[in-house]
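Training component of the fellowship. As part of building independent skills, the fellow (R.M.) carried out the full modelling exercise for a liganded target. The chosen ligand was magnesium ion. The inputs are recorded below so that the supervisory panel can assess the work.
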Amino acid sequence: MNAYRNGGFEIMSNAKPRILIVDDQEFNRIVLHDIMITLSYQPFVAKNGREALDCLIDIKPDVMILDVMMPVMNGFDVLSHLRKDPSIEYVPVIIVSALDDVESISKGILLGAEDFLTKPFNQTILKTRIESCLFKKKMHDMELNRRYELERELSEAKSQLMHSDRLASMGQVAASVAHDVNNKIAAIINRVALIARMNAVVDQKIHINLQKIDSICRGSSGLLRHLLDFSRGEQVEMRELDIHGPIENALSLVEHKISTKGIGIKFNRWESPLKMTGNSDQLEQVFMNLFINAGDAMENGGSLSISLSVVPDNSHMPFIKIECADTGTGIRAEILDKIFLPFFTTKPKGKGTGLGMYIIKQIVDAHTGKIHVTSIPDKGTTFTLLFPSLSIPSSDNYDPK
Ligand SMILES: Nc1ncnc2c1ncn2[C@@H]1O[C@H](COP(=O)(O)OP(=O)(O)OP(=O)(O)O)[C@@H](O)[C@H]1O
Ligand SMILES: [Mg+2]
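Fellow's submitted model of the complex:
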């Protein structure tokens, strides 16, 4: 009984099929163990059902030869466990019973046993049944491997799809950010040019412009921070703000460039703060893009007027309304609905990327706002923006009726 250990198990060789013998009778264990050695299988033994279940994970048997009547846990209970617990790997079971115990055999088969054996053991029958069980196990394992492989391929494809989706959105956001950083850098260049042209002894003016350069640089780094936040999957920070702030900031950045074209700027402020929830860096981007576009449409001068008002809403808080009207070239009716598409531009190559209005729309949507455009060719264009207000503003002009 070379490899037999009473009540334990021993690994003989990795290549041979692994057979777990479960029997409370030592004599039966010894006989079956020796037959397994003769048939070139690798035998393991357990004294009862409990012991068999406990060693399943370690042994990973290819076939189990299971006695029915045993103390601690009988063969039927082992079968119930095997078939009910999905964490237990599939193992074909051959139940062992007395020749005349047909009832036990049929109950075992109903509980999921693959085959049965009767005592005393016949080596040829035993070999045939084990071989048939080994074939089933092999088929089952192949099917399982194929399913694992398919699942792995599917999850790989899914994560690739998510990755390319993220890359595509990243590309769009990166392009938007690059576009607006570009605008801000252009404003820095303008300011620097202004300082250069100024009489250097006017210290106060130099000081004010340097402060503006500082604030532009801070805005630029804020934009880049949005890009990084997005790549980390974080939301843009929204706070309570007064809409006058972003409009005034944007005006101060572009007014020099615009006024050199002979464009008059008129800003009709509201007499009290107009509070809303938003991101001031992003709102500043919106107004900067609107003002730059207006400036581009009035190369030979004109006027840009920005008006604030409040629109009542019966069911909700009122809306803040911002109208930005220019007396420029206007937009032809047939392209009016295209201006919000990414990369749509009527400007020559190297002058426009066609991202400004697209960015405006994205930001307005993110603020649950609305944007609307009306335009008459050769007369001018008016953009109207609406944002949900945080409070009912106090003004004589506000009439909720
Ligand atoms: N105020 C305006 N007056 C006339 N046309 C305008 C005005 N605003 C936008 N447009 C039209 O909408 C198009 C798209 O504007 P958008 O800001 O998206 O891109 P762009 O100004 O061409 O390029 P950039 O990416 O540099 O902003 C412009 O090319 C222009 O034809
Ligand atoms: Mg533009």
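The panel noted the following from the submitted structure. The chain has nine helices and twelve strands. Confidence is low (pLDDT under 50) at residues 1-13, 396-401.
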